[in-house]
Amino acid sequence: MDASPEPEPKSVLRTTTRAGGKAARWRLPRWPVLVGMVGVGAAVTTGTLVKRRVDARQHAEIQAIRMEVNASRSELAVYWARVVSLRAEAERMRAAAESSRVEPAKSWTRARARCFDGFVERVHRRADEVAFDEQSKAIEAACARGDVAAARAGLLQLTSVSFPSTAKLAALKAEAYLQPLAEFSRQTPDYYRAFQQHEPEAAREDFAALRKELAGAEIEATTPQLMLKMELFSTVAPKDDPLLEDIAALASAADFFENPDPATLAAWRRAQRAIRIAEWPTAAAEMQSILRTTVRTRQPFRAAYGRAILQNKPDDPGAAYPYLEEAAAAGDAAARAWVVQQDLAQGRTAQALRWLEVGAMAGDKENAAKLLELYALPRTAVPRDPKRETGVLLRLAAGPDAPPLVAMLLARHYEEGGGLPTSPAKAFACYREAAEKKHVPAFAEVARRYLQGDGIAADPDQARDWACRAFAAGEQEAALPLLIELMNTAPERTAPAVQQMFEQEQVAGAAGFDDTRIGGPSMAQLQMQLARFFDQAGDYAQAAKFYEKSGSRDPAVIKRRGELTTVRPCETCGGVGKVRQSPPCPTCEGKGTVLCPLCDGRGYNFAPGSPPCSTCGGSGQVRQDGHVFACSTCGGTGKAKSSVIKQPCPNCAQGRAACRECGGTGRRTVLKECPDCHGTGARALADQ
């Protein structure tokens, strides 16, 4: 039985057998299946393409997000590099502050470092750095897992960390560093000078602001803060700044007025400006207007007003005298000097002396010389209080550079007891102090006390030396009696010094010390004493000279001077004027002999001939071992080979011959000018 055919599967292509018995190709499936298969393939392909497009877009967005994050990281790196630079500068400032050891630089450098640290902290935003780091890590994690939405949201919230712009950094530096530093520097001028040195640009801006503030402020109504600013400005501003003048006038107002009102201060400022440009009528008028108000003025203002009057009307010192007298009483040294000058010019010597004493007790050294001049005058010429005078002199003597006249006047007080107990020793010490300071009148006083033993042990040598110094310095009237007395008591020790004193005599001017106790003996008396001393000593020349200088008309003196100066024949040369002398012969220099000219000092000459043989002695034979042989040196001739014979010189003895100029005596007799009469043939005793 034929088996029934099985149905073919739907998914298998069937084949057909064509004619000829060949198998046909597979047949296509049915149309619904084909369409389904094509649709499925298209859907798969479309989905794959869409997915690829989505993935590419997501990847591109993630890359863009990462690029933005990296750009922010680059800004952070630049920011951090500049922060590091600022921190290095802050470190240098701190090191400079630590190395500074001297105030005020030490405090200022520390304040500067502290202010700069505050500025760096404002620039360095640590919290933003931490937030950026955390946020950038979260964005990277979102990008890694492909969460674009989360990454985009994180990017929108990413903290920006970038370095401030130039303008913003300058504003931040001014706010956090320069302004606090300027405020600190304004505390003292030294701080401000350091601020000007290290931050010159900021200091210029701050100084300009300070000047503008002071120029526009109502400085008539000052506050303590404004006064501090004015004091700082006055110290650090250039000396030619015109604002300084107004500030100086205002600053001095407290010394010139009590509670001045604005009108008074304005008038005072106008007066100060007029004084600075020497407009004295304006200055005097403004100051007079102040005096007419109810504002109480202080003494310095009245003194300034008196000086303005003097400048405005120099021919009317009487108008200014009351004001300057008040200033002098208040201790104004310049006003006191002017008042003294006016008192002396008007003959008010006692009043001038009183002002000078007040100044001396206050330490005024400029007018001390004028005071001492008045003290040196007799008390009858200038009445004064001895006790007050003594006190003033002791005050002046206490100074390291006290004038020598002070010691001189104190010595007089110790002698006379004018306000001090008498003490010869203290008087001598004062005189000696004045003399050692080269006060000429003290020389004679020291000499007198050494001579008399007054306050010191007697010492004629010291008395002589000091008296000669006084005479040579011009104090002849005081020195003469001392020297005369010394010539009487110790002529041998005094005469040489007095002679030298006269030879070096110099006339000096007045010493400025009026001493009425000294008389005036004649200088001729001292010269006569000196002449007699030299006459007795046999020094007739000096005796004749001082006899002549004395100018005495005493017949005995005239006769003696004639005896000393009368010319007589010279005893030395017998009136010829020449004397025979025997000086050493110049040819032989006094030796009497000279080198022999024949032998040139050898003592021998050479003559032609043969000298005997030195070996055989001229015999021609020599003996050896008892036998006689011919001399081998001379060949038995007995003569030497030389053709010259050495013979003694017949003209000399040992090379020296007698000098023909002096005949061997060594001296020559010549006529020379007489040393006593100098060739005149006559002389006097004074010439001896």
UniProtKB/TrEMBL annotation:
Family matches, as Pfam families: Sel1
Record-annotated CR-type domain positions: 557-643
Q: Which Gene3D superfamilies match?
A: Heat shock protein DnaJ, cysteine-rich domain (2.10.230.10), Tetratricopeptide repeat domain (1.25.40.10)
The segments annotated as CR-type zinc fingers are: 557-643
| SMART domains (alphabetical) | SEL1
A GO term, aspect molecular function: zinc ion binding
Q: Which UniProt keywords apply?
A: Metal-binding, TPR repeat, Zinc, Zinc-finger
Q: Where are the TPR repeats?
A: 524-557
- Write down what this protein is called: Sel1 domain protein repeat-containing protein
